[in-house]
Amino acid sequence: MSGAARRAARAVPGAGPRWTSLRLRLVVVFALVALTAAVSASGIAYWLNREAVLTRTQDSALNDFRQEMQNRAAALPPRPTEEELRRTAEQMSSGGVGYGVVLLGERAKGKPIAGVSDPDRFTMDDVPQELRAAVNKRQEVTSNNAYPYHLFWQRTTRDGTPYLVGGTRIVGGGPTGYMFKSLEAERQDLNSLAWSLGIATALALIGSALLAQAAATTVLKPVHRLGEAARRLGEGELDTRLRVSGTDELAELSRTFNSAAESLQKKVADMSSREESSRRFVADMSHELRTPLTALTAVTEVLEEEEDSLDPMIAPAVKLVVSETRRLNTLVENLMEVTRFDAGTARLVLDDVDVADQVTACVDARAWLDAVELDAERGIMARLDPRRLDVILANLIGNALKHGGSPVRVSVRTADADLFIEVRDHGPGIPEDVLPHVFDRFYKASASRPRSEGSGLGLSIAMENALIHGGDITAANSPDGDGAVFVLRLPRDASRTADGRGEEREGDGDEGA
Amino acid sequence: MGQNVAVPFLLLIEDDDSIRTALELSLSRQGHKVATAATGEDGLKLLREQRPDLIVLDVMLPGIDGFEVCRRIRRTDQLPIILLTARSDDIDVVVGLESGADDYVVKPVQGRVLDARIRAVLRRGERESTDSATFGSLVIDRSAMTVTKNGEDLQLTPTELRLLLELSRRPGQALSRQQLLRLVWEHDYLGDSRLVDACVQRLRAKVEDVPSSPTLIRTVRGVGYRLDVPA
């Protein structure tokens, strides 16, 4: 699983935004649903409770007040003294309900007096004007309304504390009474109820978030597994399968993925086996061609040496056989090289070489010295496969000479851990539409172009040889329009970059001490 | 060895009739005396009867293959062997060199190239100077072309002997594989450096006290090999 973990770690840049979207969306939706439900439920509960509590308190207080008014205030004489009023107010307020009372009477016409049960808590100033007006207003006595005066009440606040203020007049003369009841206790009850409801809402929110997380996990884990599996499949691990459990949509998706992967694997296997057999065929064929070619090659030399003494009618035929045998040799040689690359059996035989020496020797061995300008300092050492470097150079320089014409300029330079060999010709350059295909096998620039002397594999083999070193070749036209430029890049130490493809044969271990 | 007669006598072991005939024709024209065999068994028999100077050996043979023939020859004989391989596949070359071949050529080979290789291998047995050198218990007698270790004669192939001679000529100095390929094998700049490595391994097996931790023929990383004078 460490491999999977490593891959997952590598996939983090892509996983970040994906994590937020679906998971976050689920959490937000769950939270919103929970919030709406909790807030409306608690809101309604609070409201109903508040009304019930307030109404009950209010009703009991007002009923008690009405009762007290009838029992005590109505019993006062029509012209009570201030002392009588005060005493009656105190008596009224000392009941169980606990409210303050103000009684207003008239000692004489136009001489109002007031009796206050608790002047520190409640005076007439605390009674709102509207309430006084409503209380003093004489109602029309109709069939629906039996009394001219009613009990009125109002909720008010004083110094931040809620109060119930009620007032009425005794019908048929008597003092006007006002009661003043603090609703502080009810407010505290309601506040603690609100707190409880708030906490309950918060808990519901947290619970919903947790639930959403759990739901997201149960959904996202399979989705993540599916994504991981799809990625592995894309990377070529065609035997990737998902474990299917359950019967839900995700399981169905996993099943679909598995069958898709299976058919893909089967198709790829079919294709690669077909490709493998055709590759084997080419490899076998080129092997088979070698046996007659070996015999032919051995005797063509004998023929060649005898050319001068041959019948002039026969000599051209012999010459043709000799030259075509050579060409066949090259073709088969290249074919074998290509099949080795295709089969992945090509190996590097590394050695430490002076690059300038190698380039010079390559040019010299093919008698190209007159047509090639060399710009290579001796002393640039590189660890590479000399035979493969020779193949690359011979193909690049040969190609430049053939299509670009001399002089061909070969320059060697180094940058960091890389070696650059540039082959520049002064020919017409490469048409832009051909440029991307120059390394293709058997690619012909145009169908009408005469059959090239080469095998049509030269540049592709050069490229393969560069790739196996961990390098590459780029083809371009010179910016000044004067010819084509091929740049070969090779690591200076191919044993490091070729990643074990090269043969390590320094393992003698005698320098270990 | 010392059998450097004017006309080298070769034994060609090759199963394909056409190739055998063509190579025999080509090598004869290059001035060699050639005996041929179509199988490894016949070749080994001919080797005992005719004592050739050199063997050109095809790898793919019916019956015992070229590698096995090579190994059997090496048990008793140090004469030069050139492998003729139909494949330049690396495993073949490595196995061939490990079984004791001195050089190899890849089919289809030109007669001229094969001739040049043959002559180069044969030249390795020729003596050049008349002095001798001592490296610890190892004594190289350049006039007699013999090497003794603790007084005992070592059986070296001409290639191994030449490699030791070239290294001993420059004691303490590192020679690159390419240099050794030129000096010993007379190969051009494209010589296969594995020839050197394989030959060094075989030589170490014969001259070193402990071949896996050599004290005489040392590897110089990034360069090649050198012969050390023991302290």
From TrEMBL, chain A:
Catalytic reaction annotation: ATP + protein L-histidine = ADP + protein N-phospho-L-histidine
Keywords: Kinase, Membrane, Phosphoprotein, Transferase, Transmembrane, Transmembrane helix, Two-component regulatory system
Main location group: membrane
Membrane-crossing segments per the record: 26-48
Superkingdom of origin organism: Bacteria
Gene3D superfamilies attached to this UniProt entry: 1.10.287.130, 6.10.340.10, Histidine kinase-like ATPase, C-terminal domain
Compartments where found: Cell membrane
InterPro entries registered for this protein in UniProt: HAMP_dom, HATPase_C_sf, HATPase_dom, His_kinase_dom, HisK_dim/P_dom, HisK_dim/P_sf, Sig_transdc_His_kin-like_C, TCS_sensor_his_kinase
Signal peptide start-end: none
CDD domains to which the protein is assigned, alphabetical: HAMP, HATPase, HisKA
Domain Histidine kinase: 284-494
Any GO molecular function: kinase activity
Stretches assigned to the HAMP domain: 217-269
EC number of this enzyme: 2.7.13.3
Pfam families in the cross-refs: HAMP (PF00672), HATPase_c (PF02518), HisKA (PF00512)
Protein's recorded name: histidine kinase
Species per Swiss-Prot/TrEMBL record: Streptomyces ficellus
